[in-house]
């Protein structure tokens, strides 16, 4: 699937930041990943992002990441793009993961800012360019300063847009003005990485979303974009607001989104499995609240 010269948006509109399913004893579950991937595509996701924050990338090995790409790609084929998270705190390691993902069959790469070391903007730009030069795959930059400690500043993003394989951004910067400044001056496809910004960003020219909540409610979230595209902005707003309670419980309750997502997937009988330490599973009371909010969204969609 050649996405470097693909029409805008390069990875579709409704992308799921997929969990990494594990078996009961904590091992990678490739069969479960295939079942979940096929389910998400059938439910309206037109792109899958693997080994991101939700995919527990800090606690999966390089071999597990490559195995996950191969398994999911086998399950979905050419129906939707598969974007592999390869970002680390080390440029050399990131390049190695990028090449591994390309060999495993990924259609694109998600590359987060190097975390903890907090490189200045010129070093950050050099990092992304080196990764983009290393393979033939298109890149989605992942701007999430709340986790990495480093913002990809708008001016840096504008310069990086000149690279032919840097084509998209997963935007978790919580800076709508900065995002609009980049949108106005580049052809980068901006994907909301925070569900509450899915409709606002889409309305000003964004490409869609990369969503954790889409693991459990893909149709409800995609319906927001579909309504907007149909010209019914009132219905789009209604649907965005309808999803807000579930988004809040899953993403802003004090628990990581991976924890709440896997709790819901387990309750719904979908592949997910346990989380890996240092994360800990959600309790029954949390899961019951998630299920209640989920049922309200699904029944009203």
TrEMBL record:
Q: Which pathway does the record list?
A: Amino-acid biosynthesis; L-lysine biosynthesis via DAP pathway; (S)-tetrahydrodipicolinate from L-aspartate: step 3/4
Compartment list: Cytoplasm
The main location is: cytoplasm
Q: Where are the transmembrane segments?
A: none
Q: Name one GO molecular function term.
A: 4-hydroxy-tetrahydrodipicolinate synthase activity
Q: Where is the active site?
A: 142, 170
Q: Which GO terms describe its cellular component?
A: cytosol
Instruction: Give the function comment from the record.
Output: Catalyzes the condensation of (S)-aspartate-beta-semialdehyde [(S)-ASA] and pyruvate to 4-hydroxy-tetrahydrodipicolinate (HTPA).
Official protein name in the record: 4-hydroxy-tetrahydrodipicolinate synthase
The root-end lineage is:
Bacteria, Bacillati, Actinomycetota, Actinomycetes, Kitasatosporales
Q: Which gene encodes it?
A: dapA
């Amino acid at each position: 699937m050649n996405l470097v010269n693909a029409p805008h948006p390069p990875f579709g509109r409704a992308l799921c930041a997929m969990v990494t399913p594990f078996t009961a004893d904590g091992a990678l579950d490739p069969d479960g990943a295939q079942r979940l991937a096929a389910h998400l595509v059938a439910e309206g996701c037109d792109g899958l992002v693997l080994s991101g924050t939700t995919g527990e990338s800090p606690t999966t090995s390089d071999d597990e990441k490559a195995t996950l790409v191969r398994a999911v790609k086998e399950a979905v084929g050419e129906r939707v793009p598969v974007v592999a998270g390869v970002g680390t705190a080390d440029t050399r390691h990131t390049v190695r993961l990028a090449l591994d993902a390309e060999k495993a069959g990924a259609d694109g790469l998600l590359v987060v800012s190097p975390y903890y070391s907090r490189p200045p903007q010129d070093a950050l730009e050099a990092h992304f360019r080196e990764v983009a030069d290393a393979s033939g795959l298109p890149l989605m930059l992942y701007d999430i300063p709340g986790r990495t400690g480093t913002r990809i500043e708008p001016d840096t993003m504008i310069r990086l847009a000149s690279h032919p394989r840097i084509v998209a951004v997963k935007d978790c910067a919580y800076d709508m003005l900065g995002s609009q400044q980049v949108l106005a001056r580049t052809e980068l496809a901006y994907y909301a990485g925070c569900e509450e910004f899915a409709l606002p960003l889409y309305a000003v020219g964004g490409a869609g979303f990369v969503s954790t909540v889409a693991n459990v409610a893909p149709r409800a979230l995609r319906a927001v974009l579909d309504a907007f595209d149909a010209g019914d902005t009132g219905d789009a707003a209604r649907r965005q607001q309808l999803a807000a309670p579930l988004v809040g419980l899953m993403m802003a309750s004090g628990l990581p989104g991976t924890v709440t997502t896997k709790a819901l997937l387990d309750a719904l009988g979908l592949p997910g499995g346990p989380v890996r330490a240092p994360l800990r599973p959600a309790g029954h009371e949390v899961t019951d609240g998630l299920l209640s909010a989920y049922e309200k969204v699904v029944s009203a969609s």
